[in-house]
Design a protein that fits this description.
By secondary structure, the chain is α/β, with parallel strands linked by helices. It contains twelve helices and eight strands.
Length: 334
């Protein structure tokens, strides 16, 4: 099968060369690579033109969904394979995609995930890669969504389902598309062995900013979609328990300090032990990816810091949705 690899890009010059080098090193016999540049302001175009791939330029900044749709319109392959401009494909990825889609039949969309070890060596990048890998592969047999860092389906299916919604909030176009595919009778399959290496380059600040932004958008989407409590990939039950445990511990700490009932402080340890037990699968993956030292540091960050950004993002997202849905009070003219 002929595969069209579609890569949306917005100011990705720092990672594009590695991304395209990996994509073009595929051992699959028939494929093409298309980069859709979303009106980048960096040196992306210079980088892209150094590689034997198709370049599509959007005249104005339109978002990743619009870029992916533009790439799909120009694709010649039977299979569309979407990845990101900061992802590195292994040489056998396209062949694996074709084998899976052939095995599961025409009404199938196939997803992959991140490798536990990212494309850079930073602590917060490794934390994020393990966190996403765990969340996305936990229910591989019945995923709630397929992420666009590795998403493949037949071109006919993509066009019949009208592609990505260009009006949905950023970061969530793949979730919305996955839900729409399922409603159209398309089987969602996640292959845990289909892994791409992501270049995060995450600092402490960028890690927390990402957590806040994703939580904000996800909360708004989930409330509108009536599935806030769903065990959905990285928006997992474990993460929701983790944020709830942090809130409970904060309230116990304040209550103990304000009332002088310091026995309440002992309850904090009980809550956190229960939280870590519930998250034991993720903590085990931290250790497998980086050893005991990394596991201890990543677990502490996950339990004591990460919930602040996620929880605050959820509050802002919920408040934003409430303001948008609130009825307008009209004042009668005097």
């Amino acid at each position: 099968m002929h595969v069209s690899v579609i890569i949306p890009n917005r100011n990705g010059g720092a990672t594009l060369a590695r991304c395209l080098t990996a994509a073009l090193a595929s051992r699959h016999p028939r494929f093409e690579v298309t980069v859709v540049d979303d009106n980048s302001q960096d040196d992306s175009l210079e980088v892209i033109r150094r590689f034997p791939c198709r370049l599509i330029r959007l005249p104005r900044h339109s978002g990743a969904a619009a870029a992916r749709n533009a790439g799909a319109r120009h694709a010649r392959g039977e299979i569309l394979f979407f990845i990101d401009a900061d992802c590195l494909l292994p040489p056998d990825a396209l062949t694996r995609v074709c084998e899976n889609l052939d095995m599961f039949g025409p009404k199938t969309a196939l997803g992959g995930t991140y490798t536990p070890i990212p494309g850079d060596a930073l602590f917060f990048s490794r934390f994020q890669s393990v966190f996403i890998h765990y969340g996305e592969t936990k229910h591989a047999g019945d995923p709630d969504y397929l992420a666009t860092h590795a998403l493949a389906l037949r071109a006919e299916t993509f066009h019949r389902c009208h592609g990505f919604d260009e009006n949905v909030r950023p970061i969530l176009e793949d979730v919305e598309f996955s839900h729409r595919l399922r409603r159209a009778g398309i089987l969602l399959v996640l292959d845990p062995a289909l892994q791409v290496r992501h270049i995060f380059n995450y600092s402490f600040r960028r890690s927390l900013k990402n957590a806040f932004t994703k939580s904000r958008y996800w909360t708004r989407y989930s409330l509108a979609n009536h599935d806030l409590l769903a065990d959905s990939g990285t928006a997992s039950h474990e993460l929701k328990i983790n944020v709830t445990a942090y809130l409970v511990c904060t309230l116990l700490l304040l209550a103990g300090l304000l009332t002088g009932q310091y026995a309440l402080l002992g309850s904090i340890a009980v809550v956190q032990v229960a939280n870590l037990w519930f998250n034991r699968g993720l903590l085990a993956d931290f250790r497998a990816a980086g050893g005991r030292g990394f596991a201890v540091a990543a677990s502490a960050y996950y339990a004591l810091v990460y919930p602040i950004a996620v929880g605050f993002g959820a509050l802002v997202g919920a408040a934003g949705l409430g303001m948008r849905l609130a009825p307008v009070r009209r004042v009668a003219p005097r």
